[in-house]
Recover the amino acids of this structure.
């Protein structure tokens, strides 16, 4: 390829080369311009996320009775939906007086997780992602985040969901 | 500055820009991940750092242009 920076050539003739080969030559300056534009693009992306975050509506969760204490035995599971009917959740009674509930949607690719009693963990059948029963954290596999936790409170015989902790 | 020295400086600056870009790319991915998982705490600092990186890249670009222009003007042999 022809060098564009020969002594006989002026700057303008390099920038606007007549020959096709010279025109296709990407100089260091042009390439660094491209890199800086990419950097600007990523900065704009960050600003976009920031603006989206500012205008993100704060979710207000309604309280909803999701189970009766008498209907779940120790080590048993109850499926329910919260906060919307399409949001499947799973509740596990881990001890006589201890209940935990999580979103049933795996944080990897949204397969439904289930409770594996022998191993005492929540398992995702799709790519073998395992989650801790005690706090929903990832034990193994591709899920990038813990399972969202459903906050529960007890009122008499009722277990009431009061919110989601991400 | 002669041409060889100029090219070395430009190559160094370009390598630095590329390095900063990798950091910025990682920052954007991590911020998006945090945003989608409902965490908003890292978003502002990440945008600030990304802005600083962009300013740094732009500064390096200006440096490259200046060196480039100097080398062309002086036209010293290798
Ligand atoms: S969808 Fe659950 S591990 Fe992939």
């Amino acid at each position: 390829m022809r060098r564009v920076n020969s002594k006989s050539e002026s700057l303008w003739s390099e920038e606007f080369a007549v020959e096709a080969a010279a025109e296709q030559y990407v100089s260091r300056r042009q390439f660094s311009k491209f890199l800086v534009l990419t950097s600007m693009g990523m900065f704009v992306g960050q600003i976009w996320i920031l603006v989206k975050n500012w205008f993100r509506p704060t979710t207000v969760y309604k309280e909803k009775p999701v189970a009766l204490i008498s209907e779940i035995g120790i080590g048993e599971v109850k499926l329910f939906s919260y906060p919307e009917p399409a949001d499947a959740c799973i509740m596990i009674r881990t001890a006589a007086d201890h209940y935990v509930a999580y979103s049933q949607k795996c944080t990897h690719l949204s397969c439904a997780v289930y409770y594996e009693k022998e191993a005492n963990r929540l398992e995702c059948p799709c790519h073998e992602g395992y989650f801790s029963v005690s706090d929903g954290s990832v034990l193994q596999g591709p899920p990038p985040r813990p399972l969202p936790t459903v906050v529960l409170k007890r009122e008499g015989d009722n277990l009431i969901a009061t919110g989601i902790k991400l | 500055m002669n041409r060889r020295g100029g090219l070395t400086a430009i190559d160094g600056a370009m390598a630095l820009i590329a390095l900063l870009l990798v950091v910025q790319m990682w920052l954007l991915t991590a911020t998006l991940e945090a945003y989608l998982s409902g965490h908003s705490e890292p978003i502002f600092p990440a945008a600030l750092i990304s802005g600083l990186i962009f300013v740094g890249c732009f500064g390096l670009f200006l440096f490259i242009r200046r060196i480039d222009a100097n080398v062309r003007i002086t036209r010293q042999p290798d």
